[in-house]
């Protein structure tokens, strides 16, 4: 199967990193096609960034659909544009936050989330509510690490992350840790060994769910909320969406 | 004061209609500046339309800010992009759905919402949850009237709307009706007389709330969630947002 | 329009203070008629006080109705008797707690409430639940300032209030402050400057909402929950309510 | 022990009826002192009636306290003034709605409530939320029987009640029925036989809970929310509450 | 009446202790039949222990039913197997956690729970949700006292318990304390005197509720969720349940 | 990897059926070991059946652990004993209800559940709450098909099932269907074609999740709620659990 892995940020370093994480867990016959949009912010760290990125991401979804990919993964912890993407695509669309919550709930009673900037906390809480995992989350902690500094992680940044993971476990009662940014995907194994609890990265979790849906012959229901968008006129820089 | 009234759809007819509704209730010294974006769908009827419109709307917010308007109103019942707009703007930003719910809750124990397409129902329910009004809403009813057919309302369309309002009152126990589309703003008075319950239009409600905040010297808190977006690089068609 | 502003406490000093706050924000053609009941406690600081005050307040509502006022404001943060008042009155009835929550939710993601006695905390939480704002509130903090000491505010009392506001912002993450007592209405501007976040007073907020409803031609729905009370016999000191 | 059984309505017929129901289930050494207030509405059927009755009821609580009763029962399904009464009294105060919900939850998975006027439905729902039983209730049904017509129940009124009980069981899935008015207390046995499910009357349930608390040496905690009201000045017709 | 009081643990010391607590509050004509199962763990301290104990407990329910007891009490704070027991029995079945929550809610606005092992906290929270008392609970505190060490309580164990009760009152705002283990039933009086707030033990609370249901002629509804189990074949060590 | 697939019912026909469904979707190197307990009811259709089956199931978990399996699947829609099993096992434990809800939420906005007996409805609702999917479920419908009649499905039984699926889609707005019994696992494909919406079977969903966890190197967190049970004495028929 072919899985389109989308980094909604426009920084190439992040795209390369998540592609590598995804390939490491994919089945031999799963092809990972990693892409980032041609338009938008280099990193997503607030509602404004997310709103802009959300639109450009839909161009990538459309591109993947045109190529007939079998699944799309939105590899940004806010799962931006996921409803719009599910409307646009025939292939299933998986967000990495939702994927990580699902895996975490299978192996712990309460999981903690450790994420980047404090400003993204409301977005994380919103996702926990939306997907129904708020009562299974022991807390969301921000590290105030900038997303771009995760492209190449320095020692001090790693220590900062480690500190909040420890606090999640010892103060909040987290039994497992969900990493709250695609840019942390290469740290899951190392952190898990150091912390002695399961550490879940959403990128790899999403790859396995994409493969699972494929093997189960399940794809987005097009009756109801995720039916294709109605044909209509779009103007200006979105005229290509007119149908 | 100057109030920027934004129709996130790109259809001019709707913009003219809501401008006229807004002017009718505005105080003498409130100037209404009605605008619609230069890019995007002619109407918003699903999550895909909304995601595209949300971005273009932020250009209009930026334009209003540059001109120093005193408030922004997002005149689409989904209150699209409201968090991003509040980050971007210094002036307060009011969504018409939120405004209508507020007014409805002051004059009824349970209000009903009558909206356009069935597909927008989840968005309406999401807003009721987000703003905290779900328990005060007797139900949301779709008319399956297309947004564009509200530019010039035919008799049959009006009858369809009336029918769902009656059902909201008689079957669901609505004590007041919230109109679920900016395009219905010119119908509130007529419907209220016919139905004999208060009928609330969000466009006019938002104008009064904008004036109220102005008189109270209240504007968006820039400490916390609605702080200005971090400066960063945007590429492609959003390069103008780079700072 | 004529707005009846009711102080449900029987202390005249408080009535004078809130009248002055209300007049300061009212439109030129809004007449403020400030009243307090002829019966009841000099201040409301627990459920017992509130139950007693609630009844006497209804006499004032009836008086205002007889005079044909266009709106009633219940200027006590517990919004006492609001359902009963809405049944009794034809003019809309606005509580200052509800009004303050509405304004706060338009300009912040999370607001804090700073109130008087610790014992009133459950009442504040109940109102947040009732109106649907609990999830938008970062916390309610008591100052243990007695209501009557707000008639003429001493320096130490102001400092105590300021301390809890700071705690709400710094410890609870409040992005705006709602003042939890009508007796604090003259402090909003001063506190806002000192705290550098918006500070919302319910008395002035309610005045603007009363004017807004009036301009929108909206008044309490009399079909359903807020229909007029059934005619029946009352005995003893409430015989005047018999119809 | 001595149990003060308060009918907050001023109709003597109802007081006599509930006294008789209470005596029938009381232990031999439990003395039932049935009282109704000297002031207020002859029946409670909306928020306005309840607000007025709530105050007069506190006089009766005070009277019982002066006589040293061991428990108070508020025998009106809205449990009016219960928080204020718990503050005022040293003896425990039990409301019949709360008592009925407790018993119903011990013997069924989902219980239905059958009550009087449609307008009292929001009050019933509010109580279910307040006490935490909303998720255990299959629905609340109004019969639109006036409270006073329950003093002497005619055949047609009984049939109406029976019809809604059947609907609660067959349409809503109720496994037990809670009677939503003190005036129905003499019908529990007859209805239970006819319906073949348990039928719970709050008056008798409250008597047993009052005795239970007494045998367990439990009485209202006076630390915290139910501490005695602060001493203060009351004026006018409530001057007797000044301390 | 005859009340079967079941200790689901297999330790006889606990059975003797709760029998003595129950007898102390029972009416003269209430016979307490205390039993523990012939199979299972000596104490219940995690989900595994509870699952095993739950089954053996059903044998005891069956035994009591065969003898025609009038009520069953499950005297373990997790209220294990209560739904299954209600299906199996004709007599009502009362759990001590549910019973304690009911009594606590009658005499306090917020009660705290003080229990044994930290691992049982999720079970306590689950019960609070299930019965609807979560919003009335100020917090659940574990003492990490092993259940078996409650058979004969040493001074240091009592001090540990006292410490957490104080913390519940002073830090969490508990107005009353619910003891979270049947093995603490003999401490309620002593603790109540020392703490100066009501202390509720579920064993004695359940006895009074059992008597109350009996006097009210109320027993488990057998229509719906608690209907008798369908006849079917059981094999192996549960073959005796075949019908 | 080796996956122990447990049918908690004692009917061999069901075990064979689910083994065959599991094998059909398993990866080539996943070995499916299907087992049913040596003790307990031939089918699980109420809380009593489930309580009995829950215990015997733990023997099977212990057996699988002794053999070093890599995952356990509890193949009964109530996910019986899942917490106890997670404590007992080192390998992850997956319930088929939870697994089905996860897959359904990835491909639909609202899914419906179609299950067996009406009495199991509360158990299904409880699981939806526990896992956090209640708001994503359009409704649970019972077919009143006995579990054992699913071993060999007759035409009339299939029609009954089809009828409720249609009702879930057309009346409740389900966009996908979750099959509420392991015994329906062989019908998913056929029903999906007939209904034209995705149909999710929990047995196959659980197999894919078990493989996913394995590839991600994730297993149950043993710190916190799912730590191994404390060593203690068990008597009678559970003496083998003593440690």
From TrEMBL, chains A, B, C, D, E, F:
It catalyses: a D-5-monosubstituted hydantoin = a L-5-monosubstituted hydantoin; D-5-isobutylhydantoin = L-5-isobutylhydantoin; D-5-benzylhydantoin = L-5-benzylhydantoin. GO terms for molecular function: amino-acid racemase activity; hydantoin racemase activity. InterPro entries: Asp/Glu/hydantoin_racemase, Asp/Glu_race, Hydantoin_racemase-like, Iso_Racemase_Enz_sf. It comes from the Bacteria. Its EC number is 5.1.99.5. Transmembrane segments: none annotated. Belongs to the HyuE racemase family. PANTHER family: PROTEIN DCG1. This is Hydantoin racemase.
């Amino acid at each position: 199967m072919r899985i389109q892995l989308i980094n909604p940020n426009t920084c190439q370093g992040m795209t390369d990193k998540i592609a590598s994480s995804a390939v490491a867990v994919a089945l031999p016959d799963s092809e990972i096609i990693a892409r980032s949009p041609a338009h938008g912010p280099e990193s997503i760290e607030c509602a404004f960034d997310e709103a802009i990125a959300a639109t450009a991401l839909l161009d990538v979804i459309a591109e993947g659909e045109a190529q007939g990919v079998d699944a799309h993964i939105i590899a940004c912890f806010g799962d931006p544009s996921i409803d719009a993407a599910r409307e646009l695509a025939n292939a299933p669309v998986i967000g990495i936050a939702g994927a990580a919550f699902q895996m975490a709930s299978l192996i712990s009673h309460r999981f903690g989330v450790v994420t980047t900037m404090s400003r993204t906390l409301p977005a994380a809480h919103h996702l926990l509510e939306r997907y129904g995992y708020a009562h299974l989350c022991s807390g969301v902690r921000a590290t105030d690490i900038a997303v771009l500094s995760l492209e190449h992680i320095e020692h001090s940044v790693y220590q900062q992350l480690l500190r909040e993971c420890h606090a999640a476990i010892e103060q909040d009662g987290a039994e497992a840790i969900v990493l709250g940014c695609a840019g942390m995907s290469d740290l899951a194994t190392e952190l898990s060994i150091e912390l002695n609890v399961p550490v879940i990265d959403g990128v790899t979790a999403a790859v396995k769910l994409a493969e699972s849906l494929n093997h189960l012959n399940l794809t987005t229901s097009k009756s109801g909320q995720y039916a294709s968008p109605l044909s209509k006129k779009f103007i200006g820089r979105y005229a290509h969406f007119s149908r």
